[in-house]
Each structure stands twice: as structure tokens, then as C-alpha cells.
Amino acid sequence: MRKLGIDYGEARTGIAISDSLNITVQGLETIHQEGNDKKILARLEELLQEYEIDTFVVGMPINMNGTKSQRAEETEKFIHKLKCRFPKIKIETIDERLTTVAAHKTMHLLNVDKRKKKNIVDTISAVYILETYMKKIEK
What we know:
- There is one protein chain.
- With about 140 residues, the protein is an alpha/beta fold.
- The protein is built from four helices and five strands; from the N terminus they run βββαβαβαα.
- The protein has helices at about 35-50, 70-85, 100-110, 115-135; strands at about 1-5, 10-20, 25-30, 55-60, 90-95.
- Strands 3-2-1-4-5 form a five-stranded mixed beta sheet, with helices on both faces.
């Protein structure tokens, strides 16, 4: 069974997935939802039809001082929607502090065209979120 990483955002949501042996993680896509969670939920439904997924790993945007951000509250509402729509899927959260910074550093190292960065930064962040979770569970 695979794990799906989710970097939930207001305009875009990055998606990453593990391989079937849960050894590697790869970026899957960025969903452009512009505030419409129904688009994300519908796409996740399609992904569940395509892959055997048992866990959603959602990045939780915590402030640098450890407090909950406004985005964290929005993310919690989204997680509630996930639980209602997909009650059989396990949902985990991972502190996503600095994943976007790491994603930008990765894109800089790879010389990604500035025009393309906006479309892939969330997917790369989802990879970091899922990798963090995978390292946590292998201990």
C-alpha cells in the first residue's frame, strides 16, 4: 500500500506518492484549485482508483515559534473533509516548516526556469512532507 503526501494550499496543492514498497517518494502533480476543495477531493478520489493508497500525509503549516498559523486552521478544516470523504484512509500530519524553502533551494540547484517554479514548488514540498513521514515511520 502506498502513502500520499499532500501540501495543501489555498490556490495550489502539491501531491507526492510513495512506491508500492514504500521505499521511494516521487512528486505526482500540483492541483490548481483556487480555493475549491472539491477539485482536490475529486482528484484524490481518482488517485485512490488508480493506486492502492492507505495513508494521506498532510503537511501542517506551523509557525516557526511552534504556534498554529491561520493556514494550519484551514488545513485542519481540509483534513476534516478528508476524514468525512475517505473514512477508511489513515490521515497523518507532518510539521511542514521550511519545506517550501527546501523546495525553492532544490529548484535553484537544478536551475529550474523561474516561470515553471510556481507550478512545481508545491509538488516538491509534498515530496519533502512525505519523505519526512517515511523517515519517521521507519525508525
